[in-house]
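Posting this for the archive.
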Amino acid sequence: MLIRSADLKGAIPRLHPRLLPNNYAQVARNTRLEDGSIGPIKAPVTAHTFGTAPATFLKWNGNFVSFDQEDVYATPGPVAQDRLYFMGDGGAPKMRVGGTDYALALYAPSLAATVTRVTQDVGNAPSLATVYVNPQDPELPPETFDYRYSAITEKGETIASPSADIVRVDGERVVLSNMVLPEGTLKIRVYRLDRSRPSGAAGRFGLLLEQNYVAGTHGPLNSASITDFFSVFPDVSKAPFEDGDYASTEEVVTYTYTYVTEFDEESAPAPASTLLKVGKTDTATFSVSAPGQSGRGIDRIRVYRSKTSLAGTTDFYFLTELTVGQAGSVQEDDFNQLLNEPIPSTDYNPPEDDARGLIPLPNGLMAAFRGRELMFCEPYKPHAWPIKYRMTTDTDIVGLGAFGTFVAVLTKGTPFMVQGSDPSLMIMEKLESTLPCLNDASIVDMGYSVAYASYEGLVVVSQRGAEVVSRRLFTEEQWRAMRPQSIRASQRGGRYHFTYQPVANGPRKFGIIDLSGEQPFFIEADIEPTLLYFDPDTGSLYYIEGDAVVKEFDPRNGATIEKQSWRGRRIVLPGYDNFGAILVETDDVAGTKATPTDPDCTIRIYADGNLVHTTTEVNFGTRLPGGFTADKWEIEIEGYAAVTGISLASDIAELVGN
């Protein structure tokens, strides 16, 4: 009778020892079990020592970072710069840049901009002087003439001045002096009353002359002059720009502004200013308030003005950018700037102070929660969490996990899955299983799924839904005896690594659940972690055992190896018999033994629960003692050498024949 075990696996605690598959174990401790052999793990090495014991720790930019609060969720942000975003440290969400922490919330200005319309026109009627120039017929009666003038600037024609009149004797010319012209005047237009039309009729005033404004010729802007030689008649088809015409070209505008940080984060806008009616030759002045939020790195203020499209849609568009030092000062808007860039931050609500559970998602997104509310940030804008993206569950959220474009929303009741790559198009689905999450520290992103602890067992949420995967590994009674509410977990190599506390306030234990095959299995290790952290950059798993020392679990470059133990299934024969030989195949010890004087490998054989033989002989057949029979046999392996196969036979010949 020959029994051979190869492709060795871990333990299945829920199965009776005699019902285990041939290559599975009752106990697997300090073993790797990655390639079919029973390989020992390497002894932990110290990776870092904090000044005091942390409540949460992680690695960022190659350095270990600690927090004094439990369950701090921290992650690098979807930005080009090195920034660490975190929630749950006992205060509002924060951002760490270098060694400085900033509040993540960037609050919008609370006060609207102060705005004023500045009307540009040509002022009052000019002073009029007559110049005598040899009248042709002094006996003709004098005539009265009315004049108005306007200016053409870069933005168009101003309204015409009030009228001024003069009595002219034939042969005289008229000089219009002391005209007040606006800045940027290009041309002067003079209009004269056409007496051939009745008073009050349309077109009474007509264009008399138009001249380019030249300071040396026409004088300064505040006292310009121009002469009517009476050489032409007014063109009544070109009436002056009247007040009524001016009003018809008025536009209603409003202003807003935002705060911008040195990190190029932009706040939501201030309340809109009062509405301002402006004509095409008007200017406006505005002033904005200085930021009241200190310690946020605000160094600029962006000002936006409204613009209405032909379709009737009004939006704010970028006007100018000010320094913080310019806040409170009066700035001018001459309406010469083209408005092209719409305001991007209209819905940039800051994150809530009690938000927690921060996780990264693809496409520049991050997710968090508070109570029953699920929140998403603006893509690639971790400081902005628009209210319009928020979703609500029917029970309180415990924690979040992500895989692919899915977010697992784990609650005190039924889990939810949210799918989407755009926060405005997310779809939420309630899973048909009441599997509450007991502990946010038990939630682990497994890459292809999310695992967490529930009362019924370890739950895995994937595209297929929610499944209790530990049912094939632990009975519900065994699982509850581990106190799943005490679990803190991480992952490495696709395995669920967790620490648990079977007795309240008692020592912790450490276990590994392998979910990679058809049948999950369980491995234990002789450590008592209180905290775990998986470093995705190096693939290393770190832990702390209640102190300030960070250790790396099973380090790849470790030189010392731990003593492993593995006890196979209970072999139950149909009758009483005796095995006469055993062969345990091993590799050489790959490292320094934790206890150098220990044998490389120790094999113990139990019959009907009694230790009947111990040997350290490996890689050749070893005889077993005779003189007794038994129907229950077990093999236990202990040591440092990787075991690749175990064969139990009736005698040496049968063993060698194999």
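The radius of gyration is 43 Å. The helical segments are 215-218, 243-248, 476-481, 652-657.
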